[in-house]
Amino acid sequence: MSDKTACIVGASRGIGLGLAKHLAARGYRVFATERSHSEALAEAAAESAGAIEVHTADVTDPSSIAFLGEAIGRDALDILVLNAGVYGGSAQALEDLTRENVADIMMTNAVCPAQAAVALMPCMKDGGCIGMMTSKMGSIEDSSGGTNLYRLSKTGQNVLARSLFEKHARARGISVLSLHPGWVQTDMGGPNALIDVDTSVRGMIDLLEAEREPCHVFLAYDGQEVGW
Ligand SMILES: NC(=O)c1ccc[n+]([C@@H]2O[C@H](COP(=O)([O-])OP(=O)(O)OC[C@H]3O[C@@H](n4cnc5c(N)ncnc54)[C@H](OP(=O)(O)O)[C@@H]3O)[C@@H](O)[C@H]2O)c1
Fold first, then answer.
1. Contact between 10 and 33 (Cβ < 8 Å)
2. If you measure from the C-alpha of residue 10 to the centroid of ligand 1, how many angstroms do you get, rounded to a whole number?
3. Which of 35, 131, 38 is nearest to 77 (CA)?
4. How is the chain split into domains, by residue range?
5. Which residues, other chains included, contact 57 with Cβ-Cβ below 8 Å and sequence gap of 6+?
């Protein structure tokens, strides 16, 4: 096995599971997290000849992220992806927004992923790359409105990803990619989504591995820049 190492927070299913499998196939040692037992991730780990190591973490629980950081160790990661995310249910009109549902989705999709990235910074190698799984639905420029909880949380995540880059990553030569995975066939994306998990994650891993000057950019899985 090579010394390339990655961590995927939120790898029990869908895009996160795909990222863990494809990174292992590309020769990475992968720290992959689940909140509760995932048979699919256990199978991927069993088939990976030791490349995928499964850990338990909830992105909203700082102590579980601290344990994960201890397991990974310092200066170990080439790639870190904060993939965990929720959609927020179907009632997302402006009049449906409450203190509770806004706080819940902002913490899970925006604040906690950014804080987890900061907590895991000591685990990053200088010059590495952090992927923050956002969505084109977090773009203000490219928006038809609606789905307000989800959009708000991903726009918020993009703002915090910029802080992560400016305050914690840039000085160490670490790039932060706000990644739009495409509309992907997963539990969240549904069966009518446009692309499969393999297509999405292959594209995103190419972006995470690419040589670049340290930057924070908003990129779709196929390398196209997304407007903020
Ligand atoms: N699918 C799409 O078309 C699409 C489009 C744009 C952006 N995205 C983004 O891509 C990411 C992955 O989406 P997906 O389609 O793979 O969704 P998914 O199939 O619903 O999977 C979501 C993943 O996030 C994990 N997760 C949720 N809350 C978590 C928490 N508090 N702590 C740790 N893990 C947590 C889930 O773990 P459990 O199994 O424990 O619930 C699961 O592994 C999300 O951030 C999503 O917003 C998806």
1. yes
2. 7
3. 131
4. 5-220
5. 9, 33, 34, 35, 64, 65, 67, 68
Mean pLDDT for the chain? 97
Residue 213 Cα distances to 100, 130, 172, angstroms: 40, 13, 11
Report CA dihedral (21, 157, 203, 174) to the nearest 10 degrees.
-90
Ligand 1 lined by 39 (C-beta under 6 Å): no
Q: How far is the CA of 58 from the centre of ligand 1 (A)?
A: 12
pTM of the model: 0.98
Give the model confidence (pLDDT) of 44-95 as tens digits. 999 999 999 999 999 999 999 999 999 999 999 999 999 999 999 999 999 9
Residue 150 annotated in active site: yes
Most ligand 1 atoms within 8 A of CB, residue of 7, 15, 55, 147 to mutate: 15
Residue pair 132/85 in contact by the 8 Å Cβ criterion: no
Q: State which CATH number among 3.30.420.140, 2.40.30.20, 1.20.120.160, 3.40.50.720 fits the domain covering 5-220.
A: 3.40.50.720
**Residue type at position 47:** E
